[in-house]
Amino acid sequence: MVTTETVTIRVPVGMSKYLKTMDSETELIRNALLLYPYILNQTISHGGAAEILGIRKSELIDIYDKLGYSYLDMTMDELDLELETFRQLKMREAAE
């Protein structure tokens, strides 16, 4: 169980009604989203954010993935190139 505290944040009036009643899953997602800018600017890591939230890093990555925030920041072309390099290395190892 993660120790929590109450903080006050300023939000637009129309937003406040969505923040008053939340189930634990929605609250976790909200808190993960509040931490995301700090991951993005590399103030904290995914692992550090997960620790703050009291979950595993893989769980946090899954949350972000479901929301459309990719863990990997490679383009598909870059990923394809990496995979091709990996395949070539494996083929060389097998040939030796």
Radius of gyration: 19 Å
Are there runs of 5+ residues with pLDDT below 50, and where? none
- Summed over residues and divided by their number, the pLDDT gives a mean of 90
SS summary, helix count? 5
Helicity range of the residues? 55-70%
For the biggest sheet, the summary is: none
What's the short version?
The protein has helices spanning about 15-20, 25-40, 45-55, 55-65, 75-95. The longest helix is centred in the last third of the chain and has 20 residues, at about 75-95. With about 100 residues, the protein is mainly α.
What keyword list fits this structure?
single chain; mainly alpha; 65% helix; elongated
Describe the fold and architecture.
- By secondary structure, this protein is mainly α.
- It contains five helices and no strands.
- It has helices spanning 13-19, 24-40, 46-53, 57-66, 76-95.
- Helix 2 runs antiparallel to helix 3 and helix 3 (46-53) crosses helix 4 (57-66).
- It is elongated.
- The N and C termini lie far apart (52 Å).
Q: What topology emerges from the helices and strands here?
A:
Layout: H1 13-19, H2 24-40, H3 46-53, H4 57-66, H5 76-95
Helix pairs in contact: 2-3, 3-4
